Amino acid sequence: QVQLVESGGGLVQAGGSLRLSCTGSGRTFSDYSLVWFRQALGKEREFVAGITGSGGRIDYADSVTGRFTMSRDNSQNTAYLQMNSLKPEDTAVYYCAAASGRPPIFARRAVTSYAYWGQGTQVTVSS
Asked: Which of 37, 62, 76, 78 has the fewest CB atoms within 10 Å, measured from its CB?
């Protein structure tokens, strides 16, 4: 199994940027697909971005396409979420999650496809 720890959240003004990090320990990091989810107060957890173990394929939610960039450095056991042009509606707790291998395409944005989760990091965007 893999243990995940997120960092990099904080308070930023609208239009600003933040970079989140997700550091893993345990099994071989490149064996895992990674995703970022977020959960705003009173709302369901939603998919933000996902990346395959090799980093060769990245998917984004429509709401963040063109503003957020996900990447990973398997030599550092770390994945990143660069968030630019932040909006107040991006305010949420951001979670990193992992799945062994790659979930089937119809399930890649589902919370239940990911067995390993970090504790989350708060991102607050002020208007």
From this structure: 62
- Report how far residue 4's alpha carbon sits from residue 63's, in angstroms, rounded to the nearest whole number: 25
pLDDT tens-digit map of 39-50: 999 999 999 999
Please give, one letter per residue, the 3-state secondary structure of 41-80: CCCCCEEEEEECCCCCCEEECCCCCCCEEEEEECCCCEEE
The tens digit of pLDDT for each residue in 21-61 reads: 999 997 799 999 999 999 999 999 999 999 999 999 999 99
Task: Report the candidate in 24, 72, 64, 69 with the shortest Cα–Cα distance to residue 48.
Answer: 64
User: In terms of C-beta density within 10 A (0-12 exposed, 13-18 middle, 19 or more buried), how is residue 75 classed?
Assistant: exposed
Q: Using CA atoms, how far apart are residues 125 and 16, in angstroms rounded to an integer?
A: 8
Cβ atoms of residues 125 and 92 within 8 Å: no
- 4 pairs with which residues across the strands? 24
Residues 6+ apart with CB under 8 A from 112: none
